[in-house]
Amino acid sequence: MNNVINWFEIYTSDFDRAKKFYTDVFKLELTDLPVSSDRHSQMKYATFPVGVNGIAGALVKMDEVKPGAGGTLVYFDSAEINDELSRVEAAGGRILRPKLNIGDFGFIALVEDSEGNLIGLHSMA
């Protein structure tokens, strides 16, 4: 494992407004990422350029998570998300979003830890 943390997300209530803010402030282009919607929620993603250390991130609009205090989400690298998910509840956490395919960027899942913090899992498989 090269980086323990490999992905971040900044949640939005107005996706287009947030995308314009980050584009304007940091003078960079965000790339819209099509994601499959399911019965759980409608999602929008716009990715930031990948950094030299391989860490990347995105602006996100997702029904399950709202912006605000604590709105930035840290993702932990995983070889296969279901391995970690199988241990979440026994460790005192809760699975908020099961494994979800996000296309060329792999898979994600959302977990509430034992303290109520929201964390993410990311894998390519």
Automatic annotation (TrEMBL):
Family annotation (SUPFAM superfamilies): Glyoxalase/Bleomycin resistance protein/Dihydroxybiphenyl dioxygenase
Its lineage reads: Bacteria, Pseudomonadati, Bacteroidota, Sphingobacteriia, Sphingobacteriales
Q: Which organism is it from?
A: Mucilaginibacter boryungensis
Which top-level group of life is the source organism from? Bacteria
Q: InterPro entries of this UniProt entry? A: Anthracycline_SecMetBiosynth (IPR052164), Glyas_Bleomycin-R_OHBP_Dase (IPR029068), Glyas_Fos-R_dOase_dom (IPR004360), VOC_core (IPR037523)
Q: What is this protein called?
A: VOC family protein
Pfam families cross-referenced by the UniProt entry? Glyoxalase
Domain spans labelled VOC = 4-124
